[in-house]
C-alpha cells in the first residue's frame, strides 16, 4: 500500500559503512548459546544451531556451541548434542554454582568465554533466561544486540544482517552491528526451523573455568516451584493450533475456538488485541510479541492478520483463515481462506470434525 | 526508601482505529501513552512506597512531549518526575539508551538520594526487546531480577529483597541484596486510579527537565545515534506471498464440509494424525 | 472530599470551557478545570473553523504560536442536486490581511495549545477526570462537584458547565432537558490527506490561503442537513450532518450520507487520490434560540454547546462557545469583585451580558429558521435545489430555444412544484425567519 519509509539519515555519523576497529578484526566464528535449565536443553538452542550453521557456512568459519551449566552428565550431554545439530566445537563452562540460572554467574561465564575466544557472532534464544542474560552480556561487552529477530543472514562483506519487525509491526527492518564485536542477536523459539539431528561423535570441547565462588554471587535461589503439568501450554511446539481474533466479537465467543481445538487435540491461541482486552491470558498470544508457532495446521478465526501476527505463524505448513472481510491482510499469506462468519463456522466445523475424526466415539476418552 | 521507575512514552497502537467502510488503519492523531508494561512496574513501586514509606521518582528519556506521560505518572501517585531530553539522545539503540538512563539515575541519586530499587517494565510495545532493564543494571553495577511476578519480603535494614521470578517451566524464588533492578512481568497488578489530591498535585508539579549536560553525561558520543552500535540500514514492507489464499467456494455445500475437504485434500496425512490425536485425548 | 476550595470549577475543556477557565484565571481567580477526556480536545470534533475576532478577545496575540491551518479567503455556498451544484462564491484579496478573520484549524492540536494557555494563565487543569454529579447544600444550591476520583469532591463558589451538547451532568441534575432529536444533528467527518500542492491546485490557493465550501441539497435526501468541505494545510476536512430526528425517521445512516456526498460529481474530484486518515462523529445543537435552556442558577451557569448556543444557519458554534465562556467568566469576576455570593439573582448578570452580545442577538434573529428548515425540509433540501439546478441549466444551455420561452418553462416548473401560494409562502416565511 504505502511506500516503506526511509530510515532517518544518521545525522553526524561517518559510518553506515563497515570500519571495524583493529582490535575486533581477530574476532571469528559463529557461536550459539545452548540454554539448559534443570537438565533440559531448550529446543530454541538447536533451532539457532541450524541458523548458525548456515551463517558459518556462508562466512566459511566454525560454528561453536557455548554450554554453561553445572558439572555432570546433563552438561556433558548438552555439549555432545550440540555436535549432532551441527556444531564444530563446544565451549563448556561447568561449575556447580551454575546449577540454577542466576544473572551474575551466567553473565560472567559467557562474557569470560567471549573475551577469551572472541566470536564474531553470538546468538541466544529470546527466552526468559536468554533475554535476562543477553542484555547483561551485551552491556558488559559494550556491543550491539538486535533482539527478537525473524531472519538472520550475512552480507557480502561478512556483516550479520538481522531482520525484525518495526513501526509497531507494520514494516520490517534490517539491523547491523558494523563496528563492534561480537554481533549479538536473540531469536524467539520456533522462528528458525529445527534442523535435522545427525548422530555424530562429540568433537572438540574447550573447557573454561567459572572463576567464582558462592560468596561472589549475591543472588540466592531459595526455591523453585515447577508449573503444574496441566497448566502448561505447549503452544509453541503444537502440531495443530486454532486461534481467534477480534472478529469473534466477545470473550464468550472465544470458547468456540477452544471447543474446536479440543476436538482436534490442538492447542488454542489468540491474537494480541484479545490479550490486551483481557479476554485471554498472555501465554496464549501468538505473534511477534507472543509465541511463534510452526504447526502442521493453523486455523485463524476472525484474525485480520497484521504483520505482528503474521511473523508468528508464517512457518506453519497450512494456514487456514476464516474472516468476513475479504480484504483482510491475512489472506495475503494464508494458504486457504473462507469468507464467512467465524462465529457460525466454528461450531459447525467442530461438529463436522468430531463426526469425521471419531466415528467410533466409544474409542475416545472424554475430551 | 527511594525507588526510581523508568517509563517510556509510546504511540498507542491499541487505539489505532479502522475506517468503518474501507477497513484501512487510520494512524493520524494516534495519541501517546505510557508503555503499558511500565504501569505494572509503577504500581509495584507505589505499593512498596505505601508500605514502607519513601518516595517514587519516575524517569523517562524522550522528546519534550514525553512530559505528558510523566505528568500521568504523577497523577497515579508518583512523587517526582524527571524528563531526560536532549537532541543528542535521538536515535539511541538499547546500549546508548541505557548509558543515558544509567547516568541520569546516578544524578538522581546524587540529587534526591540513592535509589534502593530501580523498576522497569518488561518490554515496550514499540521496541519489544526487553533489553533496557538488564542494560541499566549492568551499567550501575546493580543486581537484577527480571520477569518478577511478585515481590516478597523487603528487609530495609538487612538490605535484602525476595521475589518470585518467572522462569521457563516454573517460578524461582530469589533473594538478592539492595540496591537492585527489578523488571516486572505484565498482569501482576493493576495501576490504581489517582486520588483527587494526587491529580491536583500532579497538575501543579514542575517536571524536572535535564539535558545531557544536566544529567551529568560525560561522554556525549555514547549517546543517541553516535553511541549506538546497531544501525538500521533498511526498512521495507514484507514481500507479499506470490499467491494469495485460495478462497473456498461453498455455494453447493456447507462451509464446514467444504473447508474440511479442502484441508484434507492438501494434507492427506493430516487426517490420520488427527484421528490418532483425537483418540489419544 | 478535598479540603482545598476554588473560586470556580469549569466542567469541560472544549472551546467554551477553555475560554471560561482562561478568562477566570487571567482575572486572578482560582480555577479548577475538569475534563473527562485524556487531554483537552480528545473528545471534541469540529470542521473546523476558527473565528479570530472572538479568540483575539481572549488571547490577542494567538497568531504567534497557535496551530493554524489556512486563513480563509473564499467562501462557497453550494446548492446541490444529484448531478450539479449551483454555487455562490465570494473570494476577496481583502481576506489576505495582516490579521485574518477566519482560519481552518484541527481541533485536537488547537485544543491542546488552547489548554496550555489556560494552564499558563494559572488554572489547574485535570484530565481523565469525570464529574459525576453536582454537589449541593441543604438548600439545593450548587456548591461544587463530585468526580470519579477517590476523595474526589471539590467545592467552589460557582460551577461553569461547559460539558458539551451531550452534557449529562446538567441533564441528570435537572438543570435542563436532554436535547430533543429535532434539536440536535449528528455529523460525521473525515480527514482526507493530500499533498499541499494538490490542495492548492484544486482549490486555487496560494501559500496559506484557505477556502470553505458549505453545501446543502439533495445529498441529504430531503432531510435537514448540511455538508462542508474545508481546506487545511495538508488535508481536506469534509463532513455532513443531519438532524437526529430525520435520521430516525428515514433510517438513513450518517455514513451512507457521507459516502454519497463524497461521490457527488462536484465533490469527488476534490478529494481524488486522497488518503483517509481519520473518521469521527459528533452531535451539534441545532435548536437555536427556542431551545436555549435555563442559563444560570444557584451557584452555576451553563455555556457553549451545553447551552445550545450554536448558530446553525451560519455554522457558527465555536465562536459562540468561546464568547459565552468568556462572558460567563466576566460576569463571575464582576460578582466576585463585589464580594457578592453566586446566587441565581447575581448570576443573571451572565444572561444579561449574553443577551447584549451578538450571541443571543444572532440566535434570536434566526430563531424560527430551525423550525422552518425542519418542517419544510423536503422543499428546501430536495425540491428547491432540483428546481434551481434545472433552472440554471436551462439558463446556461444554448439550444436555440428563445430566451423568453426558457424563462417561462422555468417559471412553470417552479409553480408546478410549489404552486404560487407555496412559492410566495416559502419566500415570505424564509424572509421572516431570516429577519
Account of the 3D structure:
The complex is a heterotrimer of chains A (367), B (281) and C (435). Chain A is built from 8 helices and 18 strands. Chain A has a 7-stranded parallel beta sheet with strand order 7-11-6-1-4-5-12, sandwiched between helices. In chain A, strands 15-14-16-17-18 form a 5-stranded parallel beta sheet. Chain A is an alpha/beta fold and 367 residues long. With 281 residues, chain B is of the alpha/beta class. Chain B has helices spanning 36-52, 67-76, 94-112, 132-140, 196-204, 255-266, 268-280; strands at 2-6, 9-11, 17-18, 25-26, 32-34, 55-61, 80-84, 117-121, 143-155, 160-167, 170-177, 180-184, 208-210, 230-236, 246-247. The longest helix of chain B has 19 residues, at 94-112. Chain C is an alpha/beta fold. Helix content of chain C is 38%, strand content 26%. Chain C has 14 helices and 17 strands. In chain C, helix 1 packs parallel to helix 3 (107-120) and helix 1 packs parallel to helix 9. Chain C is globular. Chains B and C meet through helix 2 and helix 5 of B and strand 7 and strand 15 of C. Strand 13 of chain A pairs antiparallel with strand 11 of chain B, so a sheet runs across the interface.
Structural descriptors:
heterotrimer; B: 281 residues; alpha/beta; nine-stranded mixed sheet; 32% helix; C: alpha/beta; eight-stranded mixed sheet; seven-stranded mixed sheet
